[in-house]
Amino acid sequence: MDESELTAVPRLASKAMLRHDNVRDVELLLLPERVVLLNKSGAAILGLCDGNRTVQQVVEQLERDFEATDLLNDVMTFLKDARGRGWVVVT
Amino acid sequence: MTGMPQPFGLLAEVTHQCPLHCVYCSNPVELFERSAELGTDDWLRAIRQAAELGVLQVHFSGGEPLVRGDLETLVAECRGLGLYTNLITSGLGLTESRAESLVSAGLNSAQLSIQGDTAESTNLVAASKRFDKKEAAARIIRDAGLPLNMNVVLHRVNLDRLDAIIDVCVEWGAERLELANTQYYGWALRNRELLLPSKTQLDEAVGVYERRKAELEGRMELLWILPDYYEPYPKPCMGGWAQTALTVSPDGRVYPCPVAEEITTMEFPSVRDHDLEWIWAESPAFQAYRGTDWMPDPCRSCSRKELDFGGCRCQAFALTGDAGRTDPVCIHSPDHHLVQDALDRANDGAHGDAHGDGDGDGEQLVYRRPTVSARRS
């Protein structure tokens, strides 16, 4: 694991909107011309990509919230994919 | 509403007023005057009802939606309801200050149309000389922090310029480009003889699309909207009648798709008289072709009926006068000759072109205007 990846600060892309859909009771990511249905963990990760937390801090927060350990690899994999899809930008 | 589909998208056609006169406009041939348009309060009510119904995205379109001075108010209402908003614009009339006020109101994205890669080709299909305004609009959209999506309608007159059109969108900084092959309704159907490409021309364009899509991967997303006349089976239009989205037209009438207004034998309900939930779930117009029970043969006994839902009701009506028939695009349709005859003419070597330099064969493009038809240039 590259140290710089842990200190990177992910932020939801400005074109993307994260929301809970009350009508269907699901977590969604809204994009231009596209609606992505998220699972619980995907929604939790994206919800923490606020442009303030580092990847390390996102992982720590998730491990507290879900009372879990060793989430780093899963989070990194998800964020890499999300970045490739343009959902998340990293600064 | 158990078992009833819930719409994801609302296409809000807030006006038919437009500075362009595109020969393939998807608006009905009979355009509404401004005096017939819904007021701000009616739109706000429709938006609130759409959100309750499950709508997540609102696409503001027209005509040119920027013509409406209350667009910011409508966008702000959407933002308050958590709805994602998209502005579908010609770019004409978009200034820095307008973009700023729309973004402040909560606008999430914009889709800018172009008609060709130059001022001349834009003028030929849209009767507008303001290609420069489109380039400015692209910059304004990006400077406002919005993702720039672009759209071009493809046809016989511009398909040969596809490479150059894609270059323009790359240069202007688009994230996504929809290459929308013309669908033949309304104005486009009127101009079909001049817009329908030959198979050779289309095949070359597909080659360009595939090459550029691979080349631009990760930089700009290219999307190819199939030219349905050249497909053996019809498109699963809107995922089936009244399944995923609804359109509110400038006068308040509600349709399952943007071109259903052309089905003149049907009575469509208005948000002036009914709430959207009743319109969506119970109105006779929305129930008419929902599901598969309405289907005649060959659809009824076809294994593809849950794949393409019988195709497009508007196309069935436009070509046969009966919205309940199989889409004539389908090779199994008893009306398929209506499509095949048009294709045969488009592939006839003697076919006249609209972009020639006046060889006197009398071909005319009909521009989107109440009465005027312009002779080709």
From TrEMBL, chain A:
Superkingdom assignment? Bacteria
Keyword annotations for this protein? PQQ biosynthesis
Record GO biological process? pyrroloquinoline quinone biosynthetic process
Q: Which Pfam families match?
A: PqqD
GO molecular function annotations of the record: quinone binding
Task: Give the metabolic or biological pathway.
Answer: Cofactor biosynthesis; pyrroloquinoline quinone biosynthesis
Keyword field contains Cytoplasm: no
Which InterPro entries does this one have?
Answer: PQQD, PqqD_bac, PqqD_sf
Q: How does it assemble?
A: Monomer. Interacts with PqqE.
**Name of the protein in its database record:** Pyrroloquinoline quinone biosynthesis protein D
Organism of this sequence: Prauserella isguenensis
UniProtKB/TrEMBL annotation, chain B:
Q: Which reaction does it catalyse?
A: [PQQ precursor protein] + S-adenosyl-L-methionine = E-Y cross-linked-[PQQ precursor protein] + 5'-deoxyadenosine + L-methionine + H(+)
Query: InterPro entries per the record?
Result: 4Fe4S-binding_SPASM_dom, Aldolase_TIM, Elp3/MiaA/NifB-like_rSAM, PQQ_synth_PqqE_bac, PqqE-like, Radical_SAM_PqqE_MftC-like, rSAM, rSAM_sf
Output the GO biological process annotations, alphabetical, semicolon-separated. Answer: pyrroloquinoline quinone biosynthetic process
Query: What does the entry's cofactor note say about binding and number?
Result: Binds 1 [4Fe-4S] cluster. The cluster is coordinated with 3 cysteines and an exchangeable S-adenosyl-L-methionine.
- SMART domains registered for this protein in UniProt: Elp3 (SM00729)
Q: Which UniProt keywords apply?
A: 4Fe-4S, Iron, Iron-sulfur, Metal-binding, Oxidoreductase, PQQ biosynthesis, S-adenosyl-L-methionine
Protein residues bound to [4Fe-4S] cluster = C18, C22, C25
Q: What is its EC number?
A: 1.21.98.4
Cofactor(s) needed, names only, are: [4Fe-4S] cluster
Top-rank taxon of the source lineage equals: Bacteria
Q: Which residues does the annotated region (Disordered) include?
A: 346-377
Q: How does it assemble?
A: Interacts with PqqD. The interaction is necessary for activity of PqqE.
Known role = Catalyzes the cross-linking of a glutamate residue and a tyrosine residue in the PqqA protein as part of the biosynthesis of pyrroloquinoline quinone (PQQ).
Q: What is this protein called?
A: PqqA peptide cyclase
Name its species: Prauserella isguenensis
